[in-house]
Amino acid sequence: MIHHKPCVGGYLKTAVVLANKLVRIIWRILTDCIDFNIKKAFPV
């Protein structure tokens, strides 16, 4: 059981990194959509 813990820790770390990347990509897409909608609604 003890020798499995580093693997689980590495897996969790990888999952956190992937989740952070995913959130960042989703956030970028959302902000781009919002910016586009604002520019479309209020043309400068």
In short:
This protein is mainly α. It has 1 helix and no strands. The longest helix has 37 residues, at 5-41.
Query: What is the CA-based Rg, rounded?
Result: 19 Å
The outline comes out as rod-shaped
Count of alpha and pi helical runs = 1
Termini separation (Å)? 63 Å
Low-confidence residue ranges: none
Structural class: mainly alpha
| SSE string, helices as H and strands as E | H
Write down the overall mean pLDDT: 84
Largest sheet: none
Q: Percent range for helical residues? A: over 70%
Q: What's the count of strands?
A: 0
Report the portion of residues in β strands: under 5%
Description:
The chain has one helix at 5-41. It has 44 residues and is an all-alpha fold. The protein is rod-shaped, with a radius of gyration of 19 Å.
